[in-house]
Specification:
The structure holds 2 protein chains of 2 kinds. Chain A is of the alpha+beta class. In chain A, 58% of the residues lie in helices and 20% in strands. In chain A, the strands form 2 sheets. A 4-stranded antiparallel beta sheet of chain A has the order 1-2-3-4, with helices on one face. Chain B has helices spanning 17-26, 50-64, 69-81, 87-98, 116-126, 141-148, 162-169, 195-198, 204-216, 231-238, 256-264, 278-282, 297-310, 313-325, 331-347, 351-367, 371-387, 391-409, 415-428, 431-447, 451-468, 471-487, 491-507, 521-560, 563-587, and strands at residues 13-16, 31-35, 130-135, 153-157, 176-180, 218-222, 244-249, 268-272. Chain B is globular and about 80 Å long. The two termini of chain B are 39 Å apart. The chains are: A alpha+beta, B alpha/beta. The A-B interface holds A 180, 183, 185, 187, 193, 216, 219-220, 223-224, 227-228, 231-236, 238 and B 100-101, 103-104, 107, 110-111, 140, 143, 155, 184-189, 303, 306-307, 310, 593-595.
Chain lengths: 241, 598
Amino acid sequence: MLSPNVDLPAKLQGLFQLISAYLYRGAPVLTLAASVPFLLLWSLMNLHLTGFANIEGPLVLLAFPFGATIGMLVTYVRGGRALSEIGGTVLSPTVRSFLPSLLWSVSPAASVVLAGLVLGPEHRNRLIFQIPSALMILLAILLIIQDIVVHRQKLIILPEGLALSNGRSVHGVLWSDIDEIGIRERRNRISGTDRLISAKCASGRPFAYPISVLSQRDQEKILLAIRRKSRTKTDFDKGVL
Amino acid sequence: MTVRKFPNRESPDECGLGEAAGAIALTSDELVLFVGAGVSAGSPARCPTWLHLIEAVIESGVTASSATALTRRACERWAERSAKTKIEAVCQLLYASLGSHILDALNILVRGSPNADHFAIASLAKRGRVRAIITTNFDPYIEEALLMLGVNFEIDVGEPSRSLQKALSSHKRDCLFVYKPHGSITQSHSIVMTMRQAGQPATSEVNRVIEAALRNAVVLLVGYSGSDDDLFPALLRGAAAAKRVFWAAWERSLTANAWTFARRCPTCSIVWCDGKSILQAIAPETVSPQQVRSASDELVTAALRDWATAIPQPAWTNFFSELLLSLDPEVVDGRLIVQFTEETLRSSPDRLAAARAMRNRALGLIASGNQAVGRAALAEVMDAYLAAGRPREYTELAVVMTETFSSAVNVPVTDDVLAKATWFSGKSYDSYSMGLCGYAAAIELETIGKISLARNRLVSAAGFARRAGDMTTLRKCLVRLSSVAATLKDDRTHERCERQLSVLDETLSLVDANEPSGENPILEECEQAAHRWKRKLIVGEITIGTVIMLLTFVGARFVTHSLRTATFGTLFCGGAYLFGKLRAALKSTQYPSIEESG
């Protein structure tokens, strides 16, 4: 999509096609998966149980992401099954990488909660607290989404090239199409060494993956594969830590 | 010159391959395999030796730079002097000019697949005969063979883990360890290839691992020459207490270091393999997979050329200029460097490459005898480096300035320059810069006649240079120290320096076969002086920090009239200062990764 070889109308057309395909394929699963917990929650609230008196609103709001999550889980499992048909060596992100990353992402929201608790109700109601808190929570949501998206991606090493699967779709590049693969390394005393690979392709197709989400053995597998098959360009980034 | 001899045995045990294989097969002890580059040389792995690899890199650089007069001259000089040059010093120049891209040239080490020796190692490990494998190789073939045969193992790269230390110290084995002290190709930052990395003494953890391996297991050294300055001294230190050692020699020749080890170790046998593999002899049932993959020489050469062509031209010009400058350039060489670096300066869009070219041009001018213009150019580059926030490069040039011009005019002309360089080095406790600054300060002191002070400064500077793996400065310090000691009638220091210098010139290594620990006492003296110097610096800075904190407290108390604010303010500022200093002090004691050496 970022290729300078493809003109703007063609890019826009491709983008709309992608969005429509996503809605078309995802909508039924999303609706079906969301409907069950959504109806359950509504029926619970209609029973006028004592405990639900003050949380009807938040529950309604919670129902949507809950349903969406189930929907995403279903497509993820379906996508995972489809991977076996592709073949090659499938490298999946580890829980060991996901959990610290999630903890880091949740930290802005956690700090808002902590600040709210420490400051007390009179400060919590002021705009000076609410505006930065809203920004921090938004930041946390963005980081969490980013974490989930990255950790849902699987890297596939094939004899013909490299592929990325996000559980829903697979896209890849051929070894013959790759001009050079950049390996960026950054020492990080908290999370270990951060590594990112990004392929520069003749067709201009972008291909990048943060391989530090993989286990050490899997990182070695992919690094060996790219050092064997392609020209590489190693860069060290100096981290703060 | 008095030469002390400390051999445990005048002639070490020697045996044939069959005899050694039988002895290893009969022993019930587990093996620790110490594997060097020789093991990966056989097909289909076909890894070149370090020297051949660097020669191939230089050759590909010549092709990529269209074989200019500069590259041709640099190659001629290199061919004349290569036998007397430590290969890691050339790697240092490559890293300085090409940056981390030099690591991509190592991709040719992974173009093959494990050979019969790698499978023999894996087969021995599968039978539970191996406790640990220590390898100086960057290639992944041992791990690949272990994976192919389904052997479970843990890998340690760089600094050894506690579990490896424990596994080698105890008699119980939970898991096989593969330890790669010089790094692995899959972890670029771990690779030890430059002079400043390879020249450093091994850390206490590495020493402990090697000594524990020698003490508790039967050690088989194979494909290893013992010519490194970090692991070999550790091996030598543990030689006397070794349980049983076999040093396999492929042909009927061994390096001086290997002989030294064999003489020092009472349980060591030299195994003459006569072109046969000892690993395959002790694991005879090893079966290599049918399908083997090996890149042909043409493909490897083509891959290197492809790599070299992708590197910008100014980087290659800078490398060949620096190579020539490092080989005692003549007037004609200086002129060539000036001519080509001026072209680079006109065409290079990269700021750092341009600064490097400016530096080489200034040094080229000095080499060509144009001292006045060279000095002005040098001052200009130093300003550029100062503005770019690169204190190491600034310090390097400050030393050149002092070395070249201070004694010539007999006036300490570079006080200001040196003061700045010393400030930078002290600020970060960077051993490399402290070595350089100490050396330059000693020249100044010698120039103004303070010989005794110059001696002390040279001793600590040599200690810092040794700590930083900076063999060039260490050598220069020893040369000057020898002459200063002679002036002061300090015969012992003079004799020790001379002996160490002759060892350095003959073997390109610091290991002195005539010393019981393998190390000349002058190095120990220098190391201790550097330690004392650094301690004084830290204590001084903490004292200054404390005084500043007290003054801040008094000032804040006076201005704010609040004891609480003044205390918190002072503690915060002082804490930040002390944290910064502590961080710098700790960082400078760590074994540096390649990213920090440039």
